[in-house]
Write a structure and sequence with these properties.
Mean pLDDT: 89
Helix content: 55-70%
Structural class: mainly alpha
Low-confidence stretches: none
Radius of gyration: 13 Å
Number of helices: 5
Order of helices and strands: HHHHH
Largest sheet: none
Number of strands: 0
């Protein structure tokens, strides 16, 4: 795999999991949705995201944001699996 692409894939995977943590997503429940298809869809959305800069700024915000990350293509998917 070409190194620049490898770094992008790794960076986006880390951001997706940071976003899930910040939004209180149950990662196990999320990974099990539709036998993993929802997770795969979210990974693809994240990998090809055109809002990576907005995502990074939102995640770097030290305070808990009052507004949901509406720029995130996965936000609606993440809402389906809140941690209990």
């Amino acid at each position: 795999m070409d190194w620049p692409m490898y770094r992008r894939v790794e960076r986006q995977a880390v951001r997706m999991h940071e976003m899930m943590d910040r939004l209180g997503v149950d990662p196990i429940a999320f990974a099990r949705l539709r036998q993993g298809e929802t997770y795969a869809e979210a990974r693809a959305n994240c990998l090809f995201c055109v809002n990576a800069d907005a995502c990074l700024r939102w995640l770097e915000n030290e305070t808990i944001p009052q507004e949901a990350p509406t720029f995130c293509a996965n936000f609606k998917l993440f809402e389906t699996c809140p941690q209990s």
